[in-house]
Amino acid sequence: MIKVTDYSSSSDESESSDEDGETVVVLPVFIFLSCSYHSFLSLPVSQAEERRRGGHTESNGFGNHSNHGNLPDLVQQSNSPSATPTSALQELGDMAEFGVGGSKASFTPFVDPRVYQTSPSEDDNENSAAAMFANELLRQEQARLNEARKISVVNVNPTNIRPHSDTPEIRKYKKRFNSEILCAALWGVNLLVGTENGLMLLDRSGQGKVYNLITRRRFLQMDVLEGLNVLVTISGKKNKLRVYYLSWLRNRILHNDPEVEKKQGWITVGELEGCVHYKVVKYERIKFLVIALKNSVEIYAWAPKPYHKFMAFKSFTDLQHRPQLVDLTVEEGQRLKVIYGSSVGFHVIDVDSGNPYDIYIPSHIQSQVTPHAIVVLPKTDGMEMLLCYEDEGVYVNTYGRITKDVVLQWGEMPTSVAYIHSNQIMGWGEKAIEIRSVETGHLDGVFMHKRAQRLKFLCERNDKVFFASVRSGGSSQVFFMTLNRNSMMNW
């Protein structure tokens, strides 16, 4: 059963807390289809290309402050196993940061859907465009595998009891943001929301109140590093890489620490401007920050006390292809390599030598390519990746060799793609949201929208995935899906 909740308050006090007792507003918004045989639209490479050719916690010096009120408490982090890095990694020396870790998130196989407020009377009218799209989406696999479809039942009688169901719950916060939501990050149980016009905190531990933290500043991307007491952002008119101290942001709400209030609440990283994208990568005791700029890629590493900041490590300038998406991998615990996506495909920079080279150029696409995601696959020693672009994804290694003779094929062009730590990848389209196995590309489930609308992935942790409506010039709302932990075993 799919549930949508208008939130005036939330009893979701922790990532594992029960939400019984909440008022649930049920809307007949979309169809959920689960696929028990995993082969839908996973085409051999040759077929896919033929188809396209033919048809188309440490403080920052502020100290630790214990009076947090109802605001985020820092997450306890565990130490990761230590190994002896070599080559470029040895240059970091004392910049290795202790306290890396945090428990790995556990998810169950599901997708995030979109919500539309339609009346319950429309519940029987599922032969609309959304239903037709769903039928077409699964027609090929059903014919070949005689697969049974499971359609979620929308309950038109709201109940306060959490249903015992395999289907994810979808809930909506009542707050409407007046400007477009561009990014978000969890801080404790609460949600920091970045918009075109500022930074806000959505208090998920209390009454759902929204606190304005920073106004008249655009926040394009953000990540909370609670153990370091920092919020990393790309923000401002010049897209600077600015790091805010969480203790300073907390005091913007509580106003209970005059010493913190006197100090500047942020620093810029390397005075960088024109940042396009960044990725925080944790390896052993080191936290890397790899940054894509207009024509270059920069690598910074976190330096602990007495520095307490990201410090420059490597720089790669005058790149032939402008980076739009960037990541960093450590091959076999020894070799650092930057992976980045551009308008022509995907590329690698060997950090030791500084040499760039192509790893995948989709030759069957004549126009510019839109890269969506770079996923370093688990249990491959950092050497194999899933590269998602346009409506496809391919499996390659860091030397450009195709490792799997399949192409991940989305049912439609996604507007947002994200890897979740249940070892799955989700794609948000205007008609549906799909969830697939990151290892094979096979379809695990589909959520159909009743009406076409754009959605944006925000963040995820444990069994919750947050996303927002994308309405340029209009209001946006935050949604989250709870992926029931036991559902993976039931599919």
TrEMBL record:
Q: Write one Pfam family the protein is assigned to.
A: CNH
Enzyme Commission designation: 2.7.11.1
Cellular component, GO annotation: cytosol
Compositional bias, Polar residues, is annotated for 75-87
Q: Which InterPro entries match?
A: CNH_dom (IPR001180), STE20_Ser-Thr_kinase (IPR051700)
Q: Which residue ranges does the record annotate as region Disordered?
A: 1-20, 51-87
For bias kind Low complexity, which ranges apply? 59-70
Query: What keywords appear on the UniProt entry?
Result: Kinase, Serine/threonine-protein kinase, Transferase
Which domain of life does this protein belong to? Eukaryota
Report domain CNH positions.
178-465
Q: What is this protein called?
A: non-specific serine/threonine protein kinase
Protein's organism: Seriola lalandi dorsalis
